[in-house]
From TrEMBL:
<keyword id="KW-0808">Transferase</keyword>
<keyword id="KW-0040">ANK repeat</keyword>
<dbReference type="InterPro" id="IPR036770">
    <property type="entry name" value="Ankyrin_rpt-contain_sf"/>
</dbReference>
<dbReference type="Pfam" id="PF12796">
    <property type="entry name" value="Ank_2"/>
</dbReference>
<keyword id="KW-0812">Transmembrane</keyword>
<keyword id="KW-1133">Transmembrane helix</keyword>
<feature type="repeat" description="ANK">
    <location>
        <begin position="203"/>
        <end position="235"/>
    </location>
</feature>
<feature type="repeat" description="ANK">
    <location>
        <begin position="169"/>
        <end position="201"/>
    </location>
</feature>
<keyword id="KW-0472">Membrane</keyword>
<dbReference type="Pfam" id="PF00023">
    <property type="entry name" value="Ank"/>
</dbReference>
<dbReference type="Pfam" id="PF13962">
    <property type="entry name" value="PGG"/>
</dbReference>
<keyword id="KW-0677">Repeat</keyword>
<feature type="repeat" description="ANK">
    <location>
        <begin position="271"/>
        <end position="304"/>
    </location>
</feature>
<dbReference type="GO" id="GO:0005886">
    <property type="term" value="C:plasma membrane"/>
</dbReference>
<feature type="domain" description="PGG">
    <location>
        <begin position="385"/>
        <end position="458"/>
    </location>
</feature>
<dbReference type="GO" id="GO:0004674">
    <property type="term" value="F:protein serine/threonine kinase activity"/>
</dbReference>
<feature type="repeat" description="ANK">
    <location>
        <begin position="61"/>
        <end position="93"/>
    </location>
</feature>
Amino acid sequence: MVGDFQVTMEKQSSFRASTMEKQKSFRGFMEKQKSFRIVMEKQLSFMGSERKKNKESPGKRGDLPIHLAARAGNLSRVKEIIQNYSNNETKDLLAKQNLEGETPLYVASENGHALVVSEILNYLDLQTASIAARNGYDPFHIAAKQGHLEVLRELLHSFPNLAMTTDLSNSTALHTAATQGHIDVVKLLLESDSNLAKIARNNGKTVLHSAARMGHLEVVKALLNKDPSTGFRTDKKGQTALHMAVKGQNEEILLELVKPDPAVLSLEDNKGNTALHIATKKGRTQNVRCLLSMECININATNKAGETPLDVAEKFGSPELVSILRDAGAANSTDQRKPPNPSKQLKQTVSDIKHDVQSQLQQTRQTGMRVQKIAKKLKKLHISGLNNAINSATVVAVLIATVAFAAIFTVPGQYVEDKTHGFSLGQANIANNAAFLIFFVFDSLALFISLAVVVVQCGGSNLCRCD
């Protein structure tokens, strides 16, 4: 029994020894894994820091140390850098731009470091403080876009005129803040100058247009409280803020825009579309329902294409909107007997008169041309007849001259053959006869008159040809 007990004890001690060895080897393995993990973490941490360092390195953005300190919000470092420069050099330093056109004030404003902004502003004038980056934003704009209220307070305290600066599209900081929905920034800027809400972008859109389109209800309320008349301002397309709002999906904004004056419901854009036309075209079912619930809505208004909202719904294939509009009493343009438009009638009348006048002028020109042709033909006939008459008279005159000339040398009767008193040899016996003398005179006259007629006719013929 004692021997068996000793054997059992030896087995247990050997088992314990082997177990302890396994545990030691396992611990060694775990320590190796832990050390390996620590090494990998260090490597990853080193790689991450290197990446971050490369991202913020001066080589990528062209940042100077002052840019890096301002971007990080390191106020002590900013002060330290500024103290190394004289007053004149400090202004030049703070006007330096990186590759993106950003100044130290810009990067501090963008990242919301109000204390750094306040420190930098001590050394700047308005011109330097309003230097814009390549994206068109100046420090004030970028702070408004990011919603950094305290930064804007610091900027307004030093340079209130920064609120009036505009970007490439003629947008103010108020416009930028309203588009992003930063209600606190909007209220701050409206308190500084309520006229900012009246400044429109290059496309004619006001702050209210953008806020309504983006669905920022509180911004819309703040703008309307300052100036309710902005709801009637139109952009270059002739659209109001209500036209823009119906393109979105916030019904409460529609109610706010109509509340100051329901007449805005009837305003048309350059194509004659009301807000109901636009909502129908965009397929905004809830907005259409909201508009139809308003008392002053003209459900059958026609645009310049002669389309009612129901026509638009059918055109764009929206059965649900067609049903909603029909239930509300909407009609097609063909179902309405609308009196003719006076302006269109006037245009048509003017067009008809213009056409008639042009037609009469054309006929007058054609008649004048025909009369000229007839006159030319008559003139030719006249000249031809005159020439024929001249030729005929000339022929007769030549014949008369010929006969008269021959008659002078052809004396009738006998000639004197014997010399007698009062006569010469070869003389016609009738030479001294009174009748012959009369004949001779008239024959001579006939000859010379006919010759004169021939000369005159030939001269007149030449004159006619010259004409």
